[in-house]
Specification:
Strand content: under 5%
Helix content: 40-55%
Structural class: mainly alpha
Number of helices: 3
Largest sheet: none
Radius of gyration: 19 Å
Number of strands: 0
Length: 105
Protein backbone atom coordinates (compact mmCIF):
# COMPACT_ATOMS: atom_id res chain seq x y z
CA UNK A 1 0.00 0.00 0.00
CA UNK A 2 1.33 3.43 -0.88
CA UNK A 3 2.18 5.83 1.90
CA UNK A 4 -0.51 8.44 1.02
CA UNK A 5 -3.26 5.97 0.23
CA UNK A 6 -5.75 5.45 3.05
CA UNK A 7 -6.69 1.85 3.81
CA UNK A 8 -10.02 0.67 2.40
CA UNK A 9 -12.67 1.11 5.06
CA UNK A 10 -15.78 0.29 3.08
CA UNK A 11 -16.84 -1.48 -0.12
CA UNK A 12 -17.03 1.93 -1.84
CA UNK A 13 -13.33 2.56 -1.27
CA UNK A 14 -12.30 -0.78 -2.71
CA UNK A 15 -10.41 -0.73 -6.03
CA UNK A 16 -13.34 -2.12 -8.03
CA UNK A 17 -15.47 0.88 -7.04
CA UNK A 18 -13.40 2.85 -9.56
CA UNK A 19 -14.67 0.49 -12.25
CA UNK A 20 -18.26 1.42 -11.41
CA UNK A 21 -17.77 4.55 -13.48
CA UNK A 22 -16.60 7.98 -12.67
CA UNK A 23 -19.99 9.44 -13.63
CA UNK A 24 -21.92 7.34 -11.15
CA UNK A 25 -22.89 9.27 -8.02
CA UNK A 26 -21.69 7.70 -4.82
CA UNK A 27 -23.82 7.70 -1.73
CA UNK A 28 -22.61 7.68 1.86
CA UNK A 29 -22.09 4.26 3.40
CA UNK A 30 -25.16 4.66 5.61
CA UNK A 31 -27.48 5.49 2.69
CA UNK A 32 -29.23 2.11 2.81
CA UNK A 33 -31.49 3.42 5.54
CA UNK A 34 -31.97 6.85 3.96
CA UNK A 35 -34.40 6.68 1.04
CA UNK A 36 -34.11 10.44 0.39
CA UNK A 37 -30.58 9.95 -0.97
CA UNK A 38 -31.76 7.30 -3.39
CA UNK A 39 -34.89 9.17 -4.50
CA UNK A 40 -32.90 12.16 -5.77
CA UNK A 41 -30.69 9.90 -7.88
CA UNK A 42 -33.71 7.97 -9.13
CA UNK A 43 -35.46 11.20 -10.16
CA UNK A 44 -32.33 12.39 -11.97
CA UNK A 45 -31.98 9.06 -13.81
CA UNK A 46 -35.68 9.05 -14.72
CA UNK A 47 -35.37 12.55 -16.19
CA UNK A 48 -32.28 11.54 -18.15
CA UNK A 49 -34.03 8.50 -19.59
CA UNK A 50 -37.24 10.37 -20.38
CA UNK A 51 -35.60 13.42 -21.98
CA UNK A 52 -32.60 11.88 -23.73
CA UNK A 53 -32.54 8.14 -24.00
CA UNK A 54 -36.21 7.41 -24.68
CA UNK A 55 -36.29 8.80 -28.22
CA UNK A 56 -32.95 7.43 -29.38
CA UNK A 57 -32.84 3.69 -29.64
CA UNK A 58 -29.26 3.67 -30.98
CA UNK A 59 -26.41 6.04 -31.55
CA UNK A 60 -23.85 5.58 -34.32
CA UNK A 61 -21.05 5.34 -31.74
CA UNK A 62 -20.45 5.22 -28.02
CA UNK A 63 -18.83 8.65 -28.27
CA UNK A 64 -22.03 10.18 -29.67
CA UNK A 65 -24.09 8.53 -26.92
CA UNK A 66 -21.77 9.96 -24.26
CA UNK A 67 -21.94 13.36 -25.97
CA UNK A 68 -25.76 13.29 -25.90
CA UNK A 69 -25.73 12.49 -22.18
CA UNK A 70 -23.08 15.17 -21.52
CA UNK A 71 -25.17 17.78 -23.34
CA UNK A 72 -28.24 16.82 -21.34
CA UNK A 73 -26.36 16.98 -18.01
CA UNK A 74 -24.91 20.36 -18.93
CA UNK A 75 -28.37 21.67 -19.77
CA UNK A 76 -29.85 20.08 -16.64
CA UNK A 77 -27.24 21.72 -14.41
CA UNK A 78 -27.36 25.17 -15.99
CA UNK A 79 -30.41 26.06 -18.08
CA UNK A 80 -33.20 23.61 -17.29
CA UNK A 81 -35.89 25.02 -15.02
CA UNK A 82 -36.21 23.27 -11.66
CA UNK A 83 -39.36 23.16 -9.57
CA UNK A 84 -37.31 23.45 -6.37
CA UNK A 85 -36.00 26.82 -7.63
CA UNK A 86 -39.48 28.21 -8.33
CA UNK A 87 -39.18 27.09 -11.96
CA UNK A 88 -36.01 29.07 -12.59
CA UNK A 89 -32.84 27.78 -14.15
CA UNK A 90 -29.89 27.29 -11.80
CA UNK A 91 -28.03 30.12 -13.56
CA UNK A 92 -30.98 32.52 -13.09
CA UNK A 93 -31.44 31.44 -9.49
CA UNK A 94 -27.76 31.92 -8.71
CA UNK A 95 -27.67 35.33 -10.35
CA UNK A 96 -30.78 36.49 -8.46
CA UNK A 97 -29.27 35.24 -5.20
CA UNK A 98 -26.00 37.07 -5.86
CA UNK A 99 -27.90 40.26 -6.74
CA UNK A 100 -29.95 39.97 -3.54
CA UNK A 101 -26.81 39.50 -1.42
CA UNK A 102 -25.05 42.42 -3.09
CA UNK A 103 -28.05 44.69 -2.53
CA UNK A 104 -28.20 43.70 1.13
CA UNK A 105 -24.50 44.46 1.67
Amino acid sequence: MERNTPPPTSPRSAPNSVCAGRWAPSAPDNSADNSADNSAVEAFNASLKRETLQHAKRWPSARQARLAVFKWITRYNTRRRHSTLDYRSPIDYEQQTIDRVLLAA
